[in-house]
From TrEMBL:
This is DR2241 stabilising domain-containing protein. Residues 91-201 form the DR2241 stabilising domain. Residues 4-70 form the DUF7348 domain. Residues 203-287 form the DR2241 4Fe-4S iron-sulfur cluster binding domain. Signal peptide: none annotated. Gene3D superfamilies: 3.30.1360.190, 3.30.70.2320.
């Protein structure tokens, strides 16, 4: 990037240059070069060129953001500057950190920005759980669209219906991306995450709350509107707790019940926002609308205290996706497979009815 000083001097001949603490201005007395720690005035063009050689980090930093990244995509520029803490840290401090690598997490992605001796940035992208794994021990990818396949299935090979679900599989790395490909790869893993993050920073994120989203559902999803029966929004709290918790989705929920009514459930700590109930929430809510339309019935079961506790343990383990963590030998765990099979053998009749009590009247 040896031509960066030529480019900077040419830019200063046309207009003032100001970026991240560097200022180069021109007057009848010649050029003035300023950084937070220095001031040079009355410089000829050749003297300016020589002086800039002593502030090469500032010069390459200007060249990267003014020429390489540019301003054609404000959201890409803002994201890349966030990745390396531009505007937050002074150029010398930031460059020192970049030489060692600056790390940021974006959902379950880990981004590491580094810099070479010419000020050129490169980015390593991998799963957060693979932070300490040597790059040679991960499967390398170089094309952003490869992320589409990696985001399709979880560790067990199951389809991931929610791209921002907290079940992204690891074992891969994009080891040497440029800025444009980094943003494209991130956007392939988490569609619209960068634009929505940028709009939120700019104060222009258009949030659609539950009532707005449900009100515009048509066809088979219009039934969800019947779930609002004027008896509060507790059911939407249940939906948010089930689907939008940090353990289920890496977005930070910003939508509420409506403009005036916040949900009682925390929106989470995700870096980027969720601006409206997603398709998974809508699909699940359609099912819950029908289930919650049923009248309650009274059933009588006889359970020991331990059996009641075991039923509760099983529900907790399934809801938190902990079933695979419970070893076969952990018979003290209520959701242990052998204990569950024992409960079924003891309490289910030949038709699969708990304690022999039919679900529907016979």
């Amino acid at each position: 990037m040896g031509h960066h000083i030529d480019a900077l001097v040419a830019a200063a001949a046309d207009d003032d240059v100001r970026l991240d603490g560097l200022e180069v201005t021109q007057s009848d007395d010649g050029y003035t070069l300023e950084t937070p720690d220095s001031h040079h005035a009355g410089l000829s063009e050749d003297a300016l060129r020589d002086a800039l050689g002593d502030y090469d980090d500032y010069a390459t930093n200007w060249y990267v953001w003014s020429t390489v990244v540019g301003e054609s995509s404000p959201q890409r520029r803002a994201f890349l500057r966030w990745v390396e803490g531009a505007g937050k840290y002074a150029v010398p401090e930031r460059y020192d950190a970049l030489r060692d690598g600056i790390h940021h997490e974006w959902g379950q992605l880990r981004i590491t920005a580094t810099i070479d001796g010419h000020g050129e940035r490169s980015y390593d992208l991998r799963h957060v759980d693979d932070a300490d794994i040597d790059v040679d021990d991960l499967d390398p990818y170089h094309e952003p669209l490869a992320a589409r396949q990696l985001a399709t299935y979880d560790e067990k090979g199951r389809y991931r219906p929610l791209k921002t679900g907290a079940n992204l599989a690891g074992g891969w790395v994009f080891p040497d991306l440029d800025g444009r490909d980094l943003v494209e790869t991130v956007e392939t893993f988490y569609p619209a995450s960068v634009p929505n993050w940028f709009r939120e920073r700019e104060g222009t994120l258009d949030v659609e709350h539950w009532e707005d989203t449900i009100g515009r559902q048509t066809g088979m999803y219009s039934v969800i509107d019947t779930w609002n029966r004027g008896d509060g929004h507790e059911h939407v709290n249940w939906v948010a707790e089930a689907c939008c918790d940090d353990s289920q989705c890496v977005k930070r929920r910003e939508w509420e019940y409506d403009d005036e009514t916040d949900l009682d459930v925390d929106g989470g700590d995700g870096v980027f926002p969720c601006r409206e109930p997603c398709s998974l929430v809508i699909a699940a809510s359609r099912k819950w609308t029908r289930l919650e339309g049923e009248e309650t019935k009274t059933y009588e079961f006889e359970l020991t205290p331990s059996e009641k506790q075991q039923v509760e343990d099983i529900i907790e383990a399934v809801a938190d996706d902990r079933i695979d963590e419970i070893r076969e030998a952990d018979v003290y765990e209520g959701s242990n497979r052998y204990r569950t099979r024992f409960l079924r053998a003891k309490l289910f009749d030949e038709d699969g009815n708990l304690c022999g009590v039919p679900t529907e009247d016979e």
